[in-house]
Amino acid sequence: MISSSDSENSMISTTAATKRLARAIAVSDGEFSLLLACCNSVKNQQQILNLLTEFSSTGIQEILLSPDAQTLYTTITTTIGTTQPEALMVRGLESVVEINQLISSANLMRNEFRKQFHFPLILWVNDEILRKLVWLAPDLKDWAACTIRFDALSNQLMESEQQAISA
Known about the structure:
This protein is of the alpha/beta class. Helices cover 57% and strands 17% of the residues. Helix 3 (72-80) links the parallel strand 2 (60-64) and strand 3 (87-91).
């Protein structure tokens, strides 16, 4: 059972992580940087995005990947055309059917990201996608300035509850 203090701690943690993400976006102004935002709940992602607009004055364009997306680089370049947004947020990686192929191709195209994109690129990932990035795209993952976790507290609570149940 989650108490109100756990809920408050979770909100404080989410707010702090959102502020870190807003700062990382601001620091990258006009330069390519890869930021990973890790959240296991799509519903919470939307709430965090709403909060992010309060903390960031940067115009953030958003792309929602379709399940049939094949490559990240081509999808982005097709969507943004010749414009360079202030920041670009990519969501929907967890819904991509051929996610291993998409991640592997992103790793191969990593130099093009840096050459062509003059803005921070924020990838929303969950724990599974983050593991796949580490395994399938280690070079791209190493470029990530940071991985900002939004539900670490709730993960810790679930783990402690599971440990209590199995004890």
